[in-house]
From TrEMBL:
Domain of life, per lineage: Bacteria
SUPFAM superfamilies reported in the protein's UniProt record: S-adenosyl-L-methionine-dependent methyltransferases (SSF53335)
Organism the protein comes from: Mycolicibacterium rhodesiae (strain NBB3) (Mycobacterium rhodesiae)
Gene3D superfamilies referenced in this protein's UniProt entry, alphabetically: Vaccinia Virus protein VP39
Gene Ontology biological-process annotations: methylation
GO MF: methyltransferase activity
InterPro entries xrefs: Ppm1/Ppm2/Tcmp (IPR007213), SAM-dependent_MTases_sf (IPR029063), TcmP-like (IPR016874)
Record has Membrane as a keyword: no
The protein's name in its UniProt record: O-methyltransferase involved in polyketide biosynthesis
Entry keywords, A to Z: Methyltransferase, Transferase
Length: 277
């Protein structure tokens, strides 16, 4: 009998989508992320992962965006060896173990209590890895995290499930609490009505689960989040479609991804945005 998941809310269960995608990638001969721990976590959890119907294209994008965020965390830690790393909407992600920061760095995984309980049961305990079982909609979510050290905040897949008012509140809370740092997250650009309907009508259970929880239509201009918090500065807008790891994608997905990257609208559908404060 695996770790129980029956009591999790639909929004908490969306964490299983990305974890299973990372696990599938780890089993490929040419893995993009190489997160073997994700496969171990999936094997411990009592959930119908196969029934999600996660397509290969989603595996590719999920693995590569996680790698891109990992790379930015590593770069920040290299410049700030006393940093705190804050993973918002962490789910079951094992980014702490992939990055393997020095003991001078503390890593905080923030998510809803139900999924944090599964996380703590499935992932090995480490002295400098801390779980924060709280909703990011709660204004007090950073209260247990040190405020006087450089902070690297990441969010992988979180903001698509939140209304804009909550996202804006998170941006404000970041600079209210932390002295300095960066915020990096994956973004899909502006999501039009056609894409939202297509996700809901797709046959895979994965898309139905995501479509039912989608909370934000997004934005085109990467400077738009500065309207939420002018104390932040845009320092990077990078498209997944332009990364060298795209060459590891299966042939038809590789071609489609590179073609999408030739237009601004296509490139912004899978991008990493990074802001400094």
């Amino acid at each position: 009998m695996g770790i129980a998941t029956a009591g999790l809310s639909p929004i908490e269960q969306t964490a299983f989508l990305t974890e299973y995608a990372r696990a599938l990638d780890s089993q490929w001969p040419r893995s993009i992320l190489g997160d073997a721990l994700a496969f171990d976590v999936v094997s411990k959890v009592d959930y119908d992962f196969v029934g999600l119907g996660v397509p290969t294209s989603v595996v590719c994008q999920t693995a590569l965006r996680a790698k891109m965020l990992d790379d930015r965390v590593r770069a920040f830690i290299a410049d700030h060896p006393d940093a705190v790393v804050v993973d918002l909407g962490a789910g079951l992600d094992s980014g702490f173990y992939r990055v393997d920061p020095p003991s001078s760095v503390d890593w905080y995984s923030v998510d809803l209590p139900g999924i944090i309980a599964v996380r703590d049961a499935a992932l090995p305990a480490r002295a400098h890895s801390h779980s924060v079982p709280v909703s990011v909609a709660d204004v007090h979510w950073p209260d247990t995290i040190p405020a006087d050290r450089p902070a690297m905040l990441i969010a992988d897949g979180l903001f698509a499930f939140l209304p804009e008012t909550q996202i804006a509140a998170i941006f404000t809370r970041i600079t209210d609490h932390f002295v300095s740092g960066e915020m990096a997250f994956n973004d899909y650009g502006r999501i039009g009505w056609f894409s939202r309907v297509a996700v809901k009508l797709a046959p895979q259970r994965m898309f139905k689960a995501v479509g039912s929880q989608w909370g934000y239509a997004g934005f085109k201009d990467a400077c738009y989040p500065l309207t939420w918090n002018p104390k932040m500065t845009l320092v990077e807008e990078t498209s997944l479609t332009h990364q060298p790891e795209v060459d590891l994608f299966p042939s038809w997905i590789r071609v489609a991804t590179k073609m999408a990257g030739k237009s601004k609208s296509g490139a912004r559908k899978a991008r990493i945005l990074r802001y400094a404060f």
